[in-house]
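Input chain follows. Return structure tokens only.
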Amino acid sequence: MTPTELSEQEEHLFEVLSGKRFLQMEGLSNEVPFFIYHYAPEDALAIAGSRKRIKNRLANGGIDVREINLYDLSVEMLKDRGVWDRLLALEPEQDKADFRELLQGMLDPQLHLAPAIRAKLAEGDFDVFFLTGIGEVFPYIRSHNVLNNLQSVVTGKPMLMFFPGRYEQSDTLGSSLVLFGRMKDDQYYRAKDILEQGA
């Protein structure tokens, strides 16, 4: 992405996110208020800077953003359960597939992640929820599983997931999350592409 394209997308995001229509979740036709901002993985650092600027601009306009990074939340959960150090010691010696399975059980979206996110969202009022850290938690947490389990957790506020890859939408095949532009995570059709939203 060129600096000009990044600047244009940043401006678009700010306009949409600060708009009354978005904040009041108008025109969703009873759909969940989930939006995806997909970008090329190689642009992740530039996008992180852009996200920070957008949050600051929104805050200056009185719009509070609650951001949850899935990687940071996962580490926090594992530390709170007292297993972080044991996992670090175990990881170099254990078979990768077995280790992934172990982490998937400990960070199950329905049993563990969704309740942890619910608790974080209940810590105070906010206007928009940013979900980040998607690429850092692959393959032990899959984004479509998280989204499916957040439908009953994120209610009454719009959510924007920052996704390093493509969100492909097709009339015949439905919508798919393609992580890093290479791995089809799974079909997820309920979110809307934020870049296609009007301000």
